Amino acid sequence: MSKHPTSGPPPQDAIAEIAPELSRPVDVTRLSASGTMVHLNPSADELAAIAKRLDLISVDHLNGKIRVRPTMGREITAEGMVSAQVQQTCVVTGDALPTTLEFPLLRRYSEDADALAGLDVDEDEIVDPDHDDPDPIENGTIDVGEAAVEELALQLPPYPRKLDAAFDEVVSSPPGTVDEPENPFAKLEQLKKSLKSDD
Predict the structure, then answer these.
(1) Is 139 left (phi over 0), alpha (psi -120 to 50) or beta?
(2) For 34-87, what is each residue's pLDDT tens digit?
(3) Rounded CA gap, 27 and 138, in Å?
(4) Which of 57-61, 62-66, 108-112, 183-187 is predicted with the least confidence, judged by mean pLDDT?
(5) Whole-angstrom distance, CA of residue 92 vs CA of residue 86
(6) N or C: lower Cβ tally within 10 Å for the chain?
(7) CB–CB of 101/84 below 8 Å?
(8) Which conformational region is residue 41 in: left (phi greater than 0), alpha (psi within -120 to 50 degrees), or beta?
(9) Residue-level pLDDT at 130
């Protein structure tokens, strides 16, 4: 999974130069069989950087405990629960809208994974939504903090709206539309009725 989506596959060196807003690296070459626990606990500066990246008013809280352990198939698994409190912008009123989230994080990593996997998929190719390729292990290290931010981005409501907020009803015709012309035969029929009533 790429750290910052772009319009095309970025070069390997460009991926390496991107500094994640929340970096919690784990040296997987030193993992024991039971693994290790990673606590996110971001600083105020890290929370502000995450809010800027995800186009949020603020990230007031983000925490989680992630267990990183080796699994079968020469893979590493990062698994745990993440909680967050963010301020989004209501799409109707433009006001700040607090959003509370709690979600699981499950990410697989492998030495053999392709860092650009999924970025060059052909439009006609059928992709299994339940199949998730492992992320690459880069220089013997994985970044649990970056994985948490990526998952937070996926969990955010795309169109946040206050419960009592509603769009105004459209009364007039939308711009660019033409009102339907009056039926001339109906108008003639009305004229006939008017002449008969005069008689």
Answers:
(1) left
(2) 999 999 999 999 999 999 999 999 999 999 999 999 998 789 999 999 999 999
(3) 10
(4) 183-187
(5) 18
(6) C
(7) yes
(8) left
(9) 53
